[in-house]
Amino acid sequence: MYKIAVMPGDGTGPEVVKEGLKVLAHVSKKFGFKYTTKNFDCGGERYLKTGQTITDQEIADLKTFDAIYLGAIGHPDVKPGILEQGILLKTRFALDQYINLRPVKLYNQAFCPLKDKTPEDVDFVVVRENSEGLYKGMGEFQNKGTADEVAIQISYNTRKGVERCIRYAFEYTKKRNKRKNLTLCGKTNVLTFAWDLWKRTFDEVAKEYPDVTTDYAHVDATTMWFVKNPEWFDVIVTDNMFGDIITDLGAMVQGGMGIAAGGNLNPQGVSMYEPIGGSAPKYTGKNVINPLAAICSVGMLLEISLNEVKAAKAIEDAVIKIVRNDLKSLSAGKMGYSTTEIGDLVVKNI
Ligand code: IPM
Ligand code: MN
Questions:
Q1: Given this model, what pLDDT does residue 263 score?
Q2: Neighbours of ion ligand 2 (CB under 5 A)
Q3: What is the architecture, at CATH level 2, of domain 140-253?
């Protein structure tokens, strides 16, 4: 009996999570596994009422689950940063989810904004470090509010933190067994402290993986190659900030935020899966948002945290089918189907 924590969150989060749970219920019957869910009511509405983000008690409770399923965090009436830091980043850090795994996979050429790129060309995975770097929240103001103000934001990188991420990426590249190529995406030519550590660690760990070929690309060049030659990539490993930026571009290249899923992983602990698109307030409650990213997140949860590989594969196959044959677009309101109808379509195709 698996225990799954569900945090629908803000905006369209609850709507897409509902479709993900619909698909989960279906595959659990079909593939014969059982689970319970517990709802965690974290998000903007509760914060506005109570001033609470996520409590230490809730964090302690989350640690007892097999996996966490998250919708979206972010509310238009709450100052940017409060919910993101108070809920999303707090959970990532408290549960030491040090990997953010973001597959970039195009399912239908018609939805790729890049000319002449096919599903064979756009199929790579970004391994984003998820616990350090600029996200550590280190820094200070000096002379705040004066003409001499200075704002310092520190990128904090530990050997242990960098090494565990790089090791995960090498292992993942080996296991993925596609081209067995791992690219380090960084900025060694300017950020000479952080990226010196990353590059040295990468080169050292690489020696233990003679069957994995390696590359290095600066982050600015990486964004260029994503558009020009996405087929060059197999697995990419990068830091927290660069990973955040390049995976939004990755999402566009794979057809849009509506299909982009991700996992915040603690390979030794509790991981959290989420559509990477955010709370999309303008589409909230309209039954028009694309739930496929949330449904694909359920697939990742099943594969990685519960080892229900067949159920995960069945979800992906169904998603591929409807993205190829049924949907007019992957964007909210233009899909030719409503949010709930897409959930039903996935179920029907499993
Ligand atoms: C993401 C999001 C978050 C991040 C925000 C909401 C804090 O953009 O998951 O990519 O920057 O990590
Ligand atoms: Mn982001």
A1: 98
A2: 244
A3: 3-Layer(aba) Sandwich (3.40)
The number of the ligand 1 atom at minimal distance from the alpha carbon of 100 is: 9
The predicted model scores a pTM of 0.97
Q: How far apart are CA 150 and CA 136, in angstroms?
A: 19
Cα gap 83→44, rounded to integer Å:
7
CA atoms in the 13 A half-sphere facing the CB of 312: 13
Give the CATH number of domain 1-103+259-350; options: 3.90.226.10, 3.40.50.300, 3.40.47.10, 3.40.718.10. Answer: 3.40.718.10
Tens of pLDDT, residues 2-50? 999 999 999 999 999 999 999 999 999 999 999 999 999 999 999 999 9
CA distance 331 to 67: 28
Q: Hey, what are 277's tokens?
A: 């698109």
Give the tens place of pLDDT for each residue, 144-169.
999 999 999 999 999 999 999 999 99
Q: Where are the domains of the chain?
A: 1-103+259-350, 140-253
Single out the residue of 343, 336, 349, 283 nearest to residue 19, CA to CA: 343
Give me the mean pLDDT over the 118-144 stretch: 98
State which ligand 1 atom lies nearest to the alpha carbon of 85.
7
The pLDDT assigned to 137 comes to 94
Choose the residue to mutate in 129, 244, 248, 276 for probing ligand 1, maximizing ligand atoms within 8 Å of C-beta.
Answer: 244
Separation CA 335–CA 333 (nearest Å): 6
Separation of alpha carbons 330 and 333, rounded Å: 9
